[in-house]
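Re-run with default settings, no changes from the original entry. Doing this only to confirm the output is reproducible before filing.
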Amino acid sequence: MNFNNLQYFLVTAEEKNITRAARRLHVSQQSLSSQIRRLEKELGTALFVRDKELILTPAGECLQQEARIILADYQRLLKEIDALKGYRQEQLRIGVSYAHASAIINQLLKKFQAEHPFVEMNVTTSSSSALEQALDKDQLDLIFLLLPSSLNDVEITVISREPMWIAVPEPILAKHFGSAWQKKKEELSKGVKLAVFKGEAFILHGRQERQKIVREYLLQCFEKAPDVIQTYNRQTALQISAQGKGIAFLPFGQVPERDSQKGNLSFFPLKDEALQDRFALLYKRGAAMSPAAQALVSEVQKTAFQNNKK
């Protein structure tokens, strides 16, 4: 018995027909039939009932289940052995979310590339949802995004924690702080509590998991649930806020140019640590990882440890 025998058997079991299976395997019907008979002789039992269609016997069903496991393990083994041949032939597929394609990741990847010059890094920037789908389908090796994640079977390393920010239009600042609102901005720039904006509407955008966390936080801050405006992206949220219709939430990585004001909007960090942005590295739990991927994970974990000590 060899791996070819098992592959021929599995394809025949799927097609339930020697002619179709042979065509799919690019071998002659005679050769395929001979392989199946040889396998049955070696195992000492029939694997198929020959009828209008080939039907698996109980022994055939057992072999089908085990053959799939054996061939999957064999493919994983080949991948791991190929990875051990060195970094020169490796490609590292990395995804970074729009919300945080920022300096911390640029510095980290630049440092890693300098230490591993023969690794080809393919970096994809996309939405968190798209990156999660790509990781789940093994189209990416590692992804960087803001938590929470909708994926379950993943390892997570939190790299940094940053306060969430809010965008506040001038009319709302004037409403709550009167003519002194411009002077008040310096104090607010060090951190603000949402309670000072009681009675205002709040604008949420982005993923549902993230919006849920913000909604729960709002319920904790106010006796009565405030009005919430839901939109799909940062640009629309800022446009609505600039019209004076509410206060928009922003991840740290989406504050425009890190300045304190843009147009009639001012940007302030929240004081409450209960609503922090957690930026993290994710990769599939139990997946075979190349030496390059393992090295990058190790580098990220060092960075996370240093950030958490601060």
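The chain has three domains: 3-83, 87-158+279-309, 165-269. The longest strand covers residues 154-163.
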